[in-house]
């Protein structure tokens, strides 16, 4: 509960003097949770400089409640928001069974959060089902616009202070994985690379599965090499507006210099 949460924070502060925390709740930035946390904070004695990093999901910031959510995040003490977007293309998000939202909605959300003085971590996932040359170009265009408008090289001022670029992975249990697991060509390819049958591998090699995805489902014409090239392009865009240490991802690191910087 919200009251239990604040009691734990109060105890940690009194015991260890801790004032900075990461809230590992899946999505804390929802209107009901923020309302509950704001109300419950009055029941404990914690200093005003308590700060949190938290997770948010772009579609929860609707035009009706976005500014109120930002106000409540400030009340709670959230100073850094990991804002789940993953892909700017509505088609790609729909392929992944995620809620579709327009670039205009994303831009408005980031504008509200930036004006509230909250730093934003922006994660993007490359190579999801449904990617085409058109979606790759669209993602690069959208990222460039957002960083031009809201990118910040310094923390603590609000705006986009970090971009994480990661390759899409067909995680076990997802529709993407199930689609691959039913394909004989994929199963043979996976066995030839690992020596293990895919349906017997408790911890699959997702890099090989991702390669299989581009190898055996070529309807969009996107290859692994093209995805790596796209990552490099996004990295160069980031370096126009951010420092190298503000750019990362699960399997990506930008070069320290670029002709575009």
Report what the structure shows.
The protein is α/β, with parallel strands linked by helices. The protein has helices at 2-16, 31-41, 66-76, 90-95, 103-115, 133-150, 175-181, 184-194, 206-216, 224-241; strands spanning 20-22, 51-57, 78-84, 119-126, 159-167, 247-248. β1, α2 (31-41) and β2 form a beta-alpha-beta unit. The longest helix is centred in the middle third of the chain and has 18 residues, at 133-150. The chain is globular. The termini are far apart.
Helix content: 40-55%
The SSE string, one letter per element, is: HEHEHEHHEHEHHHHE
Radius of gyration: 21 Å
Strand order of the largest sheet: 1-2-3-4-5-6
| Unreliable runs | 252-261
Number of strands: 6
Number of helices: 10
The average pLDDT value, as a whole number, equals 89
For the terminal residues, how far apart are their CA atoms?
47 Å
Q: Hey, roughly how much beta strand do the residues contain? A: 5-15%
Silhouette: globular
Describe the main β-sheet briefly.
6 strands, parallel
């Amino acid at each position: 509960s919200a009251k239990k949460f604040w009691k734990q924070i109060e105890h940690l502060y009194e015991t260890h003097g801790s004032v900075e925390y990461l809230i590992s709740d899946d999505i804390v930035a929802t209107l009901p949770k923020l309302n509950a946390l704001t109300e419950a904070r009055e029941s404990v004695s914690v200093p005003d400089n308590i700060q949190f990093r938290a997770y948010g999901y772009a579609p929860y910031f609707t035009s009706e409640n976005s500014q109120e959510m930002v106000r409540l995040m400030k009340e709670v003490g959230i100073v850094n928001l990991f804002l789940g977007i993953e892909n700017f293309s509505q088609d790609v998000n729909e392929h992944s069974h995620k809620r579709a939202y327009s670039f205009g909605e994303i831009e408005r959300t980031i504008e509200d959060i930036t004006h509230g003085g909250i730093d934003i971590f922006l994660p993007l996932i490359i190579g999801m089902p449904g990617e085409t040359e058109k979606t790759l170009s669209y993602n690069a265009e959208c990222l460039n616009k957002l960083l031009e408008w809201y990118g910040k090289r310094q923390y603590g001022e609000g705006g986009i202070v970090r971009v994480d670029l990661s390759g899409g992975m067909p995680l076990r249990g997802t529709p993407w994985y199930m689609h691959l697991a039913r394909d004989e060509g994929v199963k043979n390819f996976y066995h030839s690379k690992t020596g293990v049958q895919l349906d017997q591998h408790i911890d699959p090699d997702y890099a090989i599965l991702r390669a299989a995805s581009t190898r055996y489902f070529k309807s969009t014409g996107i290859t692994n090499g093209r995805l790596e090239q796209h990552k490099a392009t996004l990295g160069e865009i980031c370096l126009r507006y951010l420092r190298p240490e503000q750019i990362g991802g699960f399997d990506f690191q930008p070069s320290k210099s670029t002709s575009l910087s």
